[in-house]
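Last lecture ended with a question: if I hand you only a sequence, what can you say about the shape of the protein? Today we answer it with a concrete record. The protein is ABC transporter. Below, first the input exactly as provided, then the predicted structure, then a couple of comments.
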Amino acid sequence: MSPTNLSQAMSPIISIKNINKVYDSGFQALKNVSLDIHRGEIIALLGPNGAGKTTLISIICGIANSSSGNVCVDGFDTQKDYRKTRGRIGLVPQELTSDAFSTVWNTVTFSRGLFGKSSNPIIIEKILKELSLWDKKDNMMMTLSGGMKRRVLIAKALSHEPEILFLDEPTAGVDVELRKDMWKVINNLRESGVTIILTTHYIEEAEEIADRIGVINNGELILVEDKATLIQKLGKKCITLQLQESLEHIPSNLQQYQLDLSKDGLQLSYTFSTRSESSYKSEPSSIATLIDELDNNGINFNDINTTQSSLEEIFVQLVKDSEKN
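The predicted structure:
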């Protein structure tokens, strides 16, 4: 790889610096948001309704202007070099808007032309086949299901061969089976070199396909983290012991462990945080000590299970914590 290509690969494809958005009413939709998005990654932006996700996407795509701050796409400023940046971006909006009386083929072909691209049936055919739309190419848009219409929106966004794809709630209103099918499509697009930024209300969607997770609440970017690191740093683990005999109460010399005893007295649960690497590494010795102390107290168990908090639980807690501050 040449020095120039290496530099391009290492530099972020999108660089967002200190973006603020204040409407005429005085409402601040975004507060000093900064974020670098890497080439070829899938990043999921999570947040409740009204958090600022769609506003941020609109500013990056040049659809809306920020009150302050700047966004660069592939090294170009989105406001000064709008045509250069917009041509690098494909956007799939939440709304299922389309020309009801146009065919799938004509809809996608027309979208390509809007970006000044010359007609290329080979490209359109390739996109429609990759999205399992080829057999629908001659169908009127009005005859398609909601899931198929959403695929056409993705096809339209890809028609001008962008390097970046924004998916705003890509599987909203889509059944579980089709949603998983869409995840495969998104992963295939990433494998072809497309950088993907998606917003979603489905936590399992982010957990399944994203490389990094960003959490937005009340216009602020609370956190951006690698998915696996986020779960390890901010999650909790719970060890549950199935006791051989019912226990009436937890012995006083075990209170330091803050154990939970089930109502029937047959389960002991020990929950600990994995918030920091140092505390995480120290836990195994604590667990071994706990088991020794249970044995010393004559408490025996048949089985032991370990569970870890999900991304959804972490997200809910992050939002709660941000609203307290």
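Comments.
1. The radius of gyration is 25 Å.
2. DSSP finds eleven helices and 14 strands in the chain.
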